[in-house]
Amino acid sequence: MIGSLRGRLAYRQAPQIIIECAGVGYQVETPMSTFHELPELGADIFLHTHLLVREDAQTLYGFATQEERSLFQSLLKISGVGAKMGLGILSGMGVRDFARCVEHEDTATLVKIPGVGQKTADRLVIEMRDRVKDLPIGAPVRAAQGSQPDPRGEAFDALVALGYKPLEIKRLLASTETSGISAGEIIRQALKQAAN
Fold first, then answer.
1. Which residues fall within 8 angstroms of residue 192, CB to CB, at 6 or more apart?
2. Which of 12, 77, 133, 193 is the most buried (most CB within 10 A)?
3. pLDDT tens digits for 91-107?
4. What CATH number is given to the structural domain containing 164?
5. Quick check: 60 and 27 in contact, CB under 8 A?
């Protein structure tokens, strides 16, 4: 098993990169969260890796953090979730955001990820419920460069802190316009809905 790579970034074209290590170029597939943090071509790079061996291919996947790799490996154990969807999930949200979606059963956010339908989102919530507790996310995980905090997720957490139940919050957010507005405004609209 190849657990990590340290070398020179020789090529980058999303989602693939080539890392040259002692004269050998390793082709690595990365989620966009890792790809956006890559240095310039020719610079030194270190990635945590996972080697996936199938009958027809051996594919190396690279991640900027141990947390991303751990989540990817956990996702691969779920029926119907392959490496492509695993990379898609990590490209669409951070490890902490994913854990929050699972914890609060927020399938509405999960289905916004390309390739994730309602059935898959439901399966992710059910099967990852116990596994996210084992992910190494005790310390705050930095957001991917260029990504913005998720106002809907922040509003969800704030409403939980105010004593609302996850199912009630999902109902409130479903009837609240959440795109393009701040977490504070989402909270205000949700509280207004709850008061009616």
1. none
2. 12
3. 888 888 898 888 888 88
4. 1.10.8.10
5. yes
